[in-house]
Amino acid sequence: MDVFVEALKGSSDLAKLGAAVGPYVLGVMTGSGDAAAFAFNEAVTPHAASFGMTIPDLGYLASVAATFGRVSSPLAAGVIVISGIAGVSPMEVIKRSAPVQICTLAFLFFIS
Q1: Sign of the dihedral defined by the CA atoms of residues 86, 87, 88, 90, in that order
Q2: DSSP of 22-80, one letter per residue?
Q3: d(Cα 45, Cα 97) in Å, to the nearest integer?
Q4: Taking the model in full, what pTM does it have?
Q5: How many Å apart are CA 86 and CA 81, to the nearest integer?
Q6: What is the signed CA dihedral for 49, 54, 57, 63, rounded to 10 degrees?
Q7: SS3 of residue 88 by DSSP
Q8: Which of 75, 81, 14 is nearest to 48 (CA)?
Q9: Cα gap 47→70, rounded to integer Å
Q10: Interval 57-110: pLDDT, tens
């Protein structure tokens, strides 16, 4: 984690990319946006000033990215329930929701 934080100190763009991609991938892998957001925000966000960012900006981007990751995860309980109601597999739901989440996350990256 220390190596990751040191790498982020060199570039605010790299920090924003880490805040967008890291929690998103964690959310997809775990199916929990809360766990991914809390893990990133407790470990990395307190160092936001050394990245040239504010804590609220970095924390917000990480929280939204983690939430989008959860919605893009076939392991998320909500996705499983929705796919059960629709009578399709969770992967069919993800095929339609993940591209929208990734585009929205890219937009948030560029405006933050």
Answers
A1: positive
A2: HHHHHHHHHS-HHHHHHHHHHHTGGGGGGGTS-HHHHHHHHHHHHHHHHHT-TTSHHHH
A3: 27
A4: 0.82
A5: 9
A6: 50
A7: coil
A8: 14
A9: 25
A10: 888 888 999 999 998 999 999 999 999 999 999 999 999 988 998 899 889 888
Take residue 49 and report the two structure tokens written for it: 């000033």
Distance CA 104, CA 59 (A): 17
Tens digit of pLDDT for each residue in 35-57?
889 988 888 888 888 878 888 98
Contact 62, 17 (CB under 8 A): no
CA dist 65 and 28 (Å) reads 10
Residue with tokens 């989008």: 68
Q: Which amino acid is at 65?
A: A
